[in-house]
Amino acid sequence: MTTPLGKDLLALEPLTPEQIRLILDTAGPFKEISERAIKKVPTLRGSTIVNLFFEASTRTRVSFEFAEKRLSADTVNVAASGSSVSKGETLVDTARNLEAMRIDMVVIRHGASGAAHFLAERIESNVINAGDGTHEHPTQGLLDLLTLRDHFGSLEGRRVCICGDVLHSRVARSNIWGLKKLGAEVGVCGPRSLLPNAVSELGVEVFDRIEAAIEWAEALNVLRLQLERMQGGYIPSLREYNRVFGVTRERLDRAPRDLLILHPGPMNRGVEIDSDVADGPHSVILEQVTNGVAVRMAVLYLLAGGAPELADAAKGGSDR
Amino acid sequence: MTDRERESGNRERGSGSGDRKGDARRTVLRGGRVIDPSQNLDATGDLILEDGKTGAFETAAGASYGDDIRVIDCAGLVVSPGFIDVHCHLREPGREDVETIATGARAAAVGGFTAVCAMPNTQPVTDNQAAVGFVLRQGQMANAARVHPIGAISLGQKGEALAEFGEMVGAGAVAVSDDGKPVASAHLMRTALEYARTFGIPVADHCEEPTLAAGGAMNEGIVSARLGLKGIPAEAEEIMVIRDILLARRTGGHVHLCHMSTKGSVELIRWGKERGIRVTAEACPHHLSLTENEVNGYNTNAKMNPPLRTEEDVEAIREAVRDGTIDLVATDHAPHHYDEKEREFSDAPNGIVGLETALAVVVKWLVKPEIIDLPTLIQRMSVSPARTFGLPGGSLQRGAVADVTVFDPTREWKVDAANFVSKGRNSPYSGHTLQGVVMCTIVGGRIVHQAAG
Hints:
The structure holds two protein chains of two kinds.
Chain A: H1 17-33, E1 48-53, H2 59-70, E2 74-79, H3 91-100, E3 105-110, H4 115-122, E4 126-132, H5 138-152, E5 159-163, H6 170-181, E6 185-189, E7 205-207, H7 210-216, E8 219-222, H8 228-231, H9 238-245, H10 249-253, E9 260-262, H11 275-278, H12 285-303, H13 308-314
Parallel strand pairs in A: 1-2, 1-3, 3-4, 5-6, 5-8, 6-7, 8-9
Chain B: H1 3-10, E1 26-36, E2 41-50, E3 53-58, E4 69-73, E5 78-81, E6 83-88, H2 101-110, E7 113-118, H3 129-142, E8 146-149, H4 165-171, E9 176-177, H5 186-199, E10 203-205, H6 210-213, E11 218-219, H7 222-227, E12 231-232, H8 234-251, E13 255-257, H9 263-274, E14 279-283, H10 311-323, E15 328-329, H11 338-341, H12 358-367, H13 374-389, E16 404-414, E17 433-443, E18 446-450
Parallel strand pairs in B: 1-4, 1-5, 6-7, 7-8, 9-10, 10-13, 11-12, 13-14, 14-15
Antiparallel strand pairs in B: 1-2, 2-3, 5-16, 16-17, 17-18
Helix pairs in contact in B: 2-3, 3-4, 5-8, 8-9
């Protein structure tokens, strides 16, 4: 079935601005469903969705599961523990087995970049990437866009800085593509050892110092610093990271304007972000979580062949 | 030769009408353009092969030949000293499921190679005289391209203790290499160069600084940044290139640098050659034709080590093949099982098959755009490999071994990996239209491959 998004949602990089706007616009009415007492519509009744998580995840998996259940889909969670190098079944065999059970969609989280792409090429079902290695996490990117759009109205010309471990972050990549496609200016800030060597070719502003990033930006998307990066020798210590790159109240107080603060979670309080910032008045971190369910409902709906105009009719304004 | 061996030799695909005369004492390759850079020869005429050796070359047209001589019409074709691949992986012993010495030698013949050098990263590693002897014997039984064993530098390719070069050379090894693994220890590399000098063989090094390359799956650059794959920077290669050149200067040994892939490596090799240091280098057809963009879509058939680099690197490597900074073209033929490539990119093994596409890739990407001419191609694929590794062949001078490749440099064909004689199907050129077809491969005067049509 051809949908406005194609068969799968694997990444934001290949999407057009129109496709991204369509998803965000479709998410609007779905957000309202989650506010009702009875949070369920029959849209995906009879559809079978497998949540195939090769990596541990609470937030993303639960968010997808709520989105699926609120659309009345039948869901199965498969937590395939162990890495891709373990002796278990290959990804391609896992895929074929699932396909043989006549499912409709797969939501996959996997530690290898390209795993969702690999799966999508080999099965007929729709595939949604819930994070593949250090490549992309498109639904996270979309919920970040939706959150920013809720506050800014339009992203055109807005300045958003992604702070932290851009090198290993799938959230960063999805954000960079999504923001740029919607017309925002994108900055990145972090130690050079945690930025891709070719970062300047990504079309982003690079800030070596968090102070400069804060002065420039209207919103910060603060990435989680994975604790294993320290063991990997990318940074000397978490303590120094916080001292040099931490988003602190003190630093924000010196900014020329109030900044929206986003974080994809889970947070390391006192490392990349201080608690008084995370819990402060300009933090939209919990809105991100709420929007996550709506955006995922929109993606599921559109990939299942739902007509965008139906959702369009129910929604409010857009940034067009 | 026993009857059984003769039979297996004659089972060659499409051997055609030449079968009966497969072992004819005399053969004439009639009317071809004979190009032999070893004697600056480029002329049309008849080349006689006699008793396994190259005989006379006659430019007079219209000579007639008796019944006792097999005539192969080469009009419109190029007659070249047989191609020699100094770098391939034949997987035997250990992984006979993905290639054997016999299938590899036959694939080589199909690709116009009359000789190949088999890398020692087998299971177990070819690091002693018995193992070298095994490879040699299997190669002889294959009755296709000649197979020259390369011995390991270190026992088990562990990068610790030197293998017994002397005994391996005595058993038929033509070089030593730990290819597939870098020689991390500069001390070991130094010792290997000194020790190999005693036996007059090159040390072929896979240049990769292991801590920089660790975990890398492709070239480090914008494509790796976009795909979220760990990159291998060009410097991982270049650091070892300059280390090896400096150690060759120190020791007087002959270092041969495998599969050069970066512009920086070319500049360093040029620096070494200008100073008279004994450094030779090879480039692979894929590094002359494809860039890191092939990896887009997580194509595991574009995964090899060293990885495909940028357009700028590819151009520099082409130029280096043209001007001789890079001495020769080698395939790094590396068959893998379908299942091994059919997986997540970061977990898929490195390597592609190359024996059956090498000529056509070089013709398409270097000869057709007039970067090099056919004599240069033959120099880099035959004359230079023979000289660099001290192998028989690489010349059509009277008295040389009758190892000859006849090819059509103009004919186009579409690659279908299912038709490979190699057991490997892992080619990034599947579906590509290439140019240049090997019509006939002759080893020691015996036809080991003849194309249909």
